[in-house]
Structure formats: structure tokens, C-alpha cells
Amino acid sequence: MTEFDGPDLPVVWQRITRSSGRSAILTASSAYPWEICVRVRPRSVLIVAVATALAAPIGIAAAAEPPTPAPPTATAADPSAPVPPIPQGWPAVSSASATKPVEITPGVTEYSETYITADGPEHTQVLQVDLSRGKVRVDTVESHDHVIDPPNELTTSMGNRTGAVAGINGDFFAIHASGAPLGGVVRDGVLLKTPRPHFAGQVAIANRRASVGEVDFTGKLTIGKESATLESVNTVEDAAPDGLAITSDLLKKSKPPAAINGITEITPDLGAVAAIPAGTLVIAHRNGASPAVIDQVIPDATSVPALGPDQVGLLGGGAGAGWLTEHATPGARVSISADLSSKGIDTLIGGATVLVQNGAVFNDPTGAPPSGRNPETMVGVSKDGRQLTMVVIDGRQTTSIGVTPQEASEYLVAHGMDAGVLLDGGGSSTLAAQLPGTTGLTILNHPSDAAGERPVANGLFVYDH
């Protein structure tokens, strides 16, 4: 009788029979006719191996005294490779293997895993990032450096043009429409787009520590003696909720956005917006940190031009449009404040839902995960926030069937993550790195779209400078 801690259970050939009791049956390789009874206890798994007469039914002569085999274990493709932990709740796993970790740069390694389950194979690509290493940093990149970008951009293109050594695709986005990410974006400490209100499914990095959870926004604008609430930054739907066609699968599970009829700040990071419902657009210029000076007030604006580096805009819809029309005049000064509830955020990217909280599978009441099995991209965070793990699990292929959000959660928990977020998946799922001896990023997973790598709204990238 041998007792093992649950995560270290050295069993790969598993056929788990769930019942109302606290036991399960696991059957080892057909080469060894053993029945392994597993009794689950709060902090361990008790394994009792009992010889059974399984040989006859499968046509193998039973020996009087069969040899005692070593306990079946997860195998590694390389002796120095990590032994893949088997996620609890996955379909029965018959084998699991991993490749030897490859150092991309000091503090950053990548490896892959292959699981053979009762439902089909699963192939993972893993990138481990030590945020405590001096030169290592992680940041977001927007497609063509704009929030609104209908063509979007390949993950590898975003990484290559910014000098990244590795990266993954990012947030869900308005595909075949505005191209805008659905959630918030912070790059190099600059707020490019406001986080979704009362939404936890996002990853933030501040002072080299990553975290998962809600980040609130507060904003205010003042013209003369009059002030109004600033709803957001570069979130056009806050002023014109019907102005951007959203076709993301994520929002099919969500209610349409309510008409806020507020005011959003427009910065040069937004890019041009070709068509919006009529609203009031204010364009101003600023010199340094001083209040901006209004240059134009455009009532019934139906588009937003790309702004220059010293320009700022305000877009209002409904009541917000009325307030701007009443108080904004050319030559007037406007003061704008925009703050996040968590201070010092260097990087922020949104996703679909929180997968893991406090080291356990979490059902995020603020999230909207996709349904069914899909290729998935996810980010896991260690308890101290210093270790960031980026994962892509391939899907929709004979070599990898993909995972449900529940299975994605179970994967991160098995790999020791304290928190985790599901990013955009499906054909968007891409993980790339600059392998030793090469220049530029190489895609390490197998994107599921027939055309190959899909253009996306943004990504999360690793740099060594």
C-alpha cells in the first residue's frame, strides 16, 4: 500500500469510474493486469493494487505469479522534461508526456505537453515567465498600435515589430467589424482603453507582479465651472452603444450594451472610426500637462478622425452630447482626469472570464466563457504574482480536440496556478517565441483556422530589454 499526494499521483493509464461513493477504478496498461483502487481523502490519494484475473478476457495466459510492475507513471519525452500533472476532472488520461524546457531568454522558458484522453488527444504549448528577472518584462501590443483597427494584425507581426521574444494572442474582439478589443488595455503604464466595468476577467501587472480581478475606472472633465462624468477612454460604445458592430462569440452570451449616452475621451491610440451614430465630437489640443484648448465642436458627428499626438477628443451621445454642445466652445479650456482603482498598473489586458481563484476552479459571475470545446489561450498567475504562465491548448484538430472552460480551469489548477484568466480562443489561439539560434517569432502551437494564423486585436508579449 502506497500513499501519494494528489498532484503527484503517478498514474497515467486511468479509467475513472465516478459513482456516489468516494472510490474510483483505474486500469493500468494491458501489459499489466492490475486493478488499482483509488480512495480519495482530503489531502491524499490512497492506492491499493490488487491482482485480478484480467488476462483471460483479453487472450493473455495468466502466469501463476505475475511479475510486480512499477507503478504506471506519466512519461516525459525527455528525461529532464517536467512530468505533466494530470488535471482532475479531465476525461481519463492514458498517457501524458512533455518536452524538455527550452530557454528563450533568462527567466523565460517554453515546452509542450501531449495528453491522450478517452475523448481524444490534447496538445499544449506553455510559456513560463519569471517577472522577477531584471530584464524580463511583459506588455500589451494593439494591432497596428490602434484600438480601432478593422483589419487587425497577426500576433507574430505585433511581436516582431516591437522586438518581443515571445507572446500570445489577447482579448476577444469585434471581429469582421471595428476590430476593437472588448476589454481594457494598458501598455507601458498608459491607459489605451478603459477596463469593462464590474468585470474580473483581466490580467494586470504592476511593479513586476501580476494579478487577476476587477479594475475600476473613474473620470471627470471640467470646462470653466461646469463638470461632467467621463465614462471611459477610447470606448466609443459608451457614447454611441449601437455604433460598433460586435460579432464576437463572447457577446452572444451577453446582453447588448445599455445606452449610456455618456462621454468618452478619445486619444490618438483609438485610431479613426469610420461610422458612428450621430453624436457631439470635441477636438482639442494640449501642450504638456496643461488643460487642453478646444479647437472644434462638431455636432451630429458621424465619424471620428485619427488624432495627432498632441490632440485629444471628447465624444458624447444622448445626454453627453447635449452637455458638450452646451458647454464646449472653441478656445475654452478643458481639464480631463482619468484614473484606475489600482495604482501603478504597467500592463493590463482583458479576457473572457476568470478560470482560477485562490488555487481552485472558479465560476466567475462577471464572465462570459464560450461554450463547448475549443482551442484556448489562457494566462496563469502564481500566488506571489511573480510567475506568469501563458498557455495555448490546440483544438478542432485530430492532434488536439480542445478544451471546455472547465477543463481549462482544471489544467491551470493542476499546474499550480493561484489565479487564471481565459483569453480569446478558437482560431485566434497563437503562442509564438524566438527559438535559440533564430531571428523573429516562430509559431509553436497549431492554429485551427484553415488559413493559419488569424489577425487579432491585441496580444500579450515578453521582452528581454
UniProtKB/TrEMBL annotation:
Gene Ontology MF term list: hydrolase activity, acting on glycosyl bonds
Start and end residues of each Phosphodiester glycosidase domain: 319-463
> What Pfam families is this protein classified in?
NAGPA (PF09992)
Entry keywords, A to Z: Glycosidase, Hydrolase
Supply the name of the protein: Phosphodiester glycosidase family protein
**Which residues span the membrane?**
none
Q: Which organism is it from?
A: Pseudonocardia xinjiangensis
Q: Which PANTHER family match?
A: N-ACETYLGLUCOSAMINE-1-PHOSPHODIESTER ALPHA-N-ACETYLGLUCOSAMINIDASE
